Amino acid sequence: MITVRRVFWDRLTAWAFQRFSVYVAPFVIGLGSVAVLLWAPHQFDTSGTVPLSFPVVADPSGALSPTAAMARLRNAPTTARFSTHLSETPFWFALNLPADARAGATFIDLPSRHAQTVSCWRTAPTITLLGAGNRQSTSGAMRFNKAGFVLKLEESAPDASILCKGSFSGPAYITASALSGDKLEATTLDFHEGASLLTGGLLTLAIFVFVTAIINREWTYVIFAAWLVGNLRLTANAMGFDTEWLGRVIPSDHIASVREFTFAAYYLLTTTLFVELFRRELKVIGLRWSLNAVRYGGCLLMAAAFTLSYQHFIPVLWASASFCILVLTYFLVQLVIKARSRTVLWYVASMGIVLFATLSEVLAAAFGLKTLAGTHSPVVTALSSSVLCAFAIAERMREERASRRQMEIELRNTYDLTPIGLFTLNGEGRFIRANPALHSMLGLPQEDYSKYRWTDYFAGTAERDLSELLQRDDSASIEIEGAAGAVTDARRYSLRAIRANGFIEGSLEDVTDRSKAVERLHFLAWHDPLTGLLNRRGIEHAIDWQCSEGKPWALAYLDLDRFKLFNDLFGHGTGDEILRHVAARLVERLGPQVRIGRIGGDEFVCVLADMDIELAIERCRELVTALNSAPVQVDTRAFQVRGSIGVVECSQDERAPDALAHADRACRAAKRGGNARLVALPKGAPAFKERAAEISLVEELGQSRLPEGLFLVMQPIMSMHTPTEALDFEVLLRLRTPDGAVATAGKLIAAAEDSGTIVAIDRWVLSTTLAWLSENRASLSTTRFVCVNLSGGSLNDEHFLDELFALFSQYKDIVHYLCIEITESVALHDLEHTERFIGRVHDMGAKIAIDDFGAGQTSLRYLKKLSVDALKIDGEFVRTMCNHPADIAIVEAIISLARNLGMRSIAEWVEDLQTLQALKELGVDYVQGFAIAKPQEAYNILAASSAASFVSDADVKRYLAAEDSPQGQRITLSHKRVTAI
What is the pLDDT of residue 977? Predict the structure, then answer.
């Protein structure tokens, strides 16, 4: 019971002391201070001072004697305050004490702080020097007092007139007053009290602000502390005690320079402080150019302070200060209108007082406005502006403290609510702080968790990883593993950490799922998702790696036979299961050390490392046997899977695309030979040379230029009705290689299509053909048509078609010879486009033929829309028609179709007499092939009279001669009349 009561009284006493110290004592102090200021008498009674009026004359030459000056002063007007207007020439003035001031007046006070020298004489009965003084010393009855001088009067002649001479610097005013010794002492003490009060108050405030700024790293407050010192020096100048600093006298020859620097520095500090304090608010107001002009004016003022004399510096100061005051006043008004912050209002009030006091001083000094002179107390101005600034600082501190408190609350909420684990460790690796997410993530208890260490939850290397992470300068993260047997077992975490104040601050994020997803994506980047084998990218990487090993190796390319049939009949799901079983058999047979990849639907590649070609062939033959030995079981069905394999021996400098291309070529050769075949290509095989030639040709065409060695040959096309009367032919492309061999157009066209230069090839063929026809037209009197092939790429190139028809216009007199051949697949790819093309060709006078008709999947329903002139029967049907009755039926159907549609029929690949006779019986219009003639050079065409003249086979010649006999002609005329294409 006693203990409870004691605790109660202790708490009550502490509460009472705290309330007294916070509320009662400051209130009593403030209230007492206000009461003393309002009602208590002043410590020093300065009343009783009598201002004196006096005449003043200037002495520009400085040559006037006291007698001459007295004579001039008799006619001069009197004044109680005289402005020197910055003149530094001597001034003479006469002082006469009024009758009511003579009694008890023993001193004449000359308070001007700008006075440099003062000398005074008694004028009666003779002119006698009473005393003199300058800023270094005084003599006679002249003494230093406050900011100026004081002259002690002789008691024996208090009513005598006193003549004084003085020189001044800066915006000086001449004033004088008579007072007693007691009053002089009181005014002097009052002056020093005000100076001490001002100096002590502003210096204390400046030191407080400076220390606060340094501790809190608030550089704006450093500027404010310097501004307070400048405010003190400016007020000291106004009061006249700026000749000393901290109780030490400033040498008189340095006072002018110190004043100039003070004014310029105060200007710069005021503008800089204004901009720093109201930076955000000034962005809203705008007119930044005016503030920049003020700041540049400060730079000019500082330069003037170091280069100009005090007399010439003052006008520059007045001009700069006036402009600065006007600009800052405008912005102060805008801040009051637009800003709602109490801090801004306190600052505005403080700077408003300073600007008003400065403006009044400037106007009074510059224009001699006596009404503004002495309207304010420098002490009151300095202290009130400083106190208001102190209020502003306090308000700013309160706002910042409230902002920090709000930020702390938000930070605490963020710390508690963030889904990422946040922690703090001490030097021993123990947890001293953790947010709820980390508690949940690691299973840390909510209380007394400081006994748990970092290593309790993470793998053995996690501590070393954390140490290495802390030594890094960047903010990168690392991934660590959870400890076995702990809550974190089999989990992965992303860790970030730094050292701060002797502790380790870090974040922890569970990235197990993301890590698994990344591993899965990495796996899929190199592997086939269906079978788990390498994909094309992975197998190419394996090939590149194998090439760097320097050991013999081979590449096997497996393609399943008729695999599409499984997908079509049983669905893709069944096909996928078959592929998985095949992949498993490959791995089982070849072993896990062999890198196997699936690079297509049913295509597999095996990198046979450290094997020569013989061993590779043996292993692949075993693989084919194993693949074919047992069917693949999928659900209740069993599928017999077979495959064809191509094996190539690879060199160490092999490129992955080349190796794959060679293996693919070998595999295709195996498939052409029948199912479940194996074809091996050792080094130096002709297939490699062919592949190299194809690559070289594609690369050459890929350089956007035509290969050298292109030329044209012509293969005659013979009319079956008038074989000896017409010389028609087809233009064929050939390439003469550097070794003199002639390559056919097949490989060239394929390479051109791969490299994208087929349009340039077609352009060259057409332009060369038309130019040749134009040049040799006179020698081609029996020629009725000339066939030229056009590729699908060119037909779909609008720019090429424009060039084509431009060529037709250029050679319009011979364009009727041309018969443009297009394949049926190209013609039917875009039917509307093909119809427009055929129409334009016919309009220009040329003809159109469908090449390789029957080779594709022709839709006869659309053939009627194409108004072509001829159908060229695919040579595969013609070459074997005498051996296969089905081919005869197909050829006969095409011939009949052409005849019924008003077209001519042309049979190509006619290689023997038997085929020629069969075609004649079927009624074909034209034939082309080796039975008639092989492709001829251009000069042979020009020397011939008809296509039949090229026939070299004796049996064919006799047959044609028999057909050309009168009996044969009568048989021919029994058919309907035949015209040229």
Answer: 36
Residue with tokens 């310029």: 264
Report the chain's terminal Cα–Cα distance, integer Å.
132
- Residues near 164 by Cβ (< 8 Å), separated by ≥ 6? 92, 93, 94, 95, 110, 118, 119, 120, 121, 151, 176
Per-residue pLDDT reduced to its tens digit, 547-557: 877 788 888 99
In eight-state DSSP terms, residue 20 is I
Q: Strand pairing partners for 633?
A: 638
- Give me the helix-helix angle, 288-307 and 252-277, nearest 10°: 170
Which pLDDT tens digit goes with each residue over 686-722?
655 555 555 555 555 544 567 777 899 999 999 999 8
- Residue-wise pLDDT for 273-295, tens only, equals 878 777 777 777 777 788 888 88
d(CA 776, CA 772): 6
The answer as to whether 889 is a domain residue is yes
What CATH number did the domain enclosing 958 receive? 3.20.20.450
175 lies in the same domain as 197: no
CA 54 to the chain's CA centroid: 79
Q: 902 and 854 in one domain? A: yes
Of 112, 118, 120, nearest in space to 134 by CA: 118
CA distance 532 to 906: 53
Instruction: Using DSSP bridges, classify how beta strands 632-634 and 421-425 pair: parallel, antiparallel or unpaired.
Output: unpaired
Low-confidence residues of the chain: pLDDT under 50: 370-375, 702-703, 970-980
- Angle 526-529-530 from CA coordinates, rounded to 5°: 135
654/596 same-domain check: yes
Instruction: Report phi then psi at 251, rounded to 5.
Output: -55, 140
Q: How many domains does the chain have?
A: 6
In this structure, the answer to whether residues 596 and 711 fall within a common structural domain is: no
Domain assignment present for 409: no
Residue 965 CA, distance from chain mean position: 87
The answer to whether residues 797 and 930 belong to one domain is yes
Cα 136 from Cα 130, distance rounded (Å): 18
User: Domain containing 175: what range?
Assistant: 50-179
